[in-house]
């Protein structure tokens, strides 16, 4: 039987946000450039939480990682993994970074054999399915992505996003029903979204190409993008991006 899972933030570092899930699991969001110091600090926080909360499953969302130093991976292999085994952790799921070139660092983890307790996935949904019945009983739909807000993690389907905008030092994720405020830059917030679906069209906007109904010329080389089933809402397309978005919509 499915049940809701609540999140409690237990650690925030320069490159990691770690949450305890109400059904005894750890959810870690990694981002940016990871070195030995950041890996060690966050890894020790995960181990401490797993022990204190008697957790048996860990989900690592690596989609916003930009790079991982080899020596940092060495620390995971030599120091963290033996302690994870000793604590009785049953399953550890990793979600690949969004760019294929960064996946080599994750592939290295697969070479470590710990009774098949570690698996690497290309999507949040696939990772959740593997953990279903252990940690994530109330699974999001295909295409789900996670965003860090002031109230914890917000998980939504990226196909429901119309656009992202920058407003008053916050990034706003706009769906048909809600506006979600994110305390990150527009670039960082859009990092984990599918590149073929989302395009940066202005210094203040990233749009979902699948949601665009039409482009209308405005003035001075600028266009406005209007969206399907979203009234008269529009975003401004910069002159530099107008040709690119026209080609993307026609493709």
Rg measurement, Å: 20 Å
What overall form do the CA principal axes indicate?
elongated
Please bin the fraction of helical residues. Answer: 25-40%
Number of strands: 16
Number of helices: 6
CATH topology of the largest domain: Transcription Regulator spoIIAA
Distance between the termini: 43 Å
H/E element sequence: EEEHEHEHEHEEEEEHEEEEEH
User: What structural category arises from helix and sheet content?
Assistant: alpha+beta
Largest sheet: 6 strands, mixed
Q: Please tell me the total number of domains.
A: 2
Q: Which regions have little confidence, pLDDT < 50, spanning 5+ residues?
A: 134-142
Considering the protein shown, what is the CATH homologous superfamily of the largest domain?
Answer: STAS domain
| Arithmetic mean pLDDT | 82
CATH class wording of the largest domain: Alpha Beta
Relative strand content: 35-45%
Can you give a write-up of this model?
With 251 residues, this protein is α+β, with helices and mostly antiparallel strands. The chain has 2 domains: 7-131, STAS domain (Transcription Regulator spoIIAA); 144-250, OB fold (Dihydrolipoamide Acetyltransferase, E2P), CATH 2.40.50. 27% of the residues lie in helices and 39% in strands. It has 6 helices and 16 strands. The strands form 4 sheets. The chain has a 6-stranded mixed sheet with strand order 1-2-3-4-5-6, with helices on both faces. It has a 5-stranded antiparallel sheet with strand order 11-10-9-13-12. Helix 1 (36-52) runs parallel beside helix 2 (70-87). The radius of gyration is 20 Å and the shape is elongated.
């Amino acid at each position: 039987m499915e049940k809701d899972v609540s999140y409690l933030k237990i650690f925030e570092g320069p490159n990691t946000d770690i949450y305890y899930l109400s059904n005894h699991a750890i959810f870690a969001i990694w981002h940016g450039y990871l070195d030995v110091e950041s890996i060690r600090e966050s890894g020790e926080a995960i181990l401490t939480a797993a022990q204190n909360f008697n957790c048996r499953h860990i989900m690592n969302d690596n989609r916003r990682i930009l790079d991982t130093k080899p020596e940092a991976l060495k620390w995971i292999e030599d120091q963290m993994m033996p302690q994870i085994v000793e604590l009785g952790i049953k399953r550890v799921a990793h979600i690949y970074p969004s760019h294929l070139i960064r996946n080599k660092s994750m592939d290295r983890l697969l070479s470590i054999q710990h009774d098949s307790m570690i698996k690497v996935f290309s999507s949040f949904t696939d990772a959740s399915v593997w953990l279903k019945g252990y940690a994530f009983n109330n699974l999001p739909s295909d295409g789900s992505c996670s965003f860090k807000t002031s109230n914890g993690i917000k998980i939504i389907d990226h196909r429901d996003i119309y656009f992202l905008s920058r407003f008053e030092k916050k990034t706003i994720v706009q769906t048909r029903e809600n506006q979600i405020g994110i305390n990150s830059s527009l670039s960082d917030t859009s990092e984990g979204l599918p590149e073929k679906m989302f395009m940066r069209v202005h210094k203040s906007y990233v749009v979902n190409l699948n949601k665009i109904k039409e482009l209308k010329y405005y003035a001075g080389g600028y266009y406005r993008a209007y969206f399907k089933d979203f009234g008269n809402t529009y975003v401004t397309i910069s002159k530099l991006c107008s040709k690119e978005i026209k080609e993307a919509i026609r493709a």
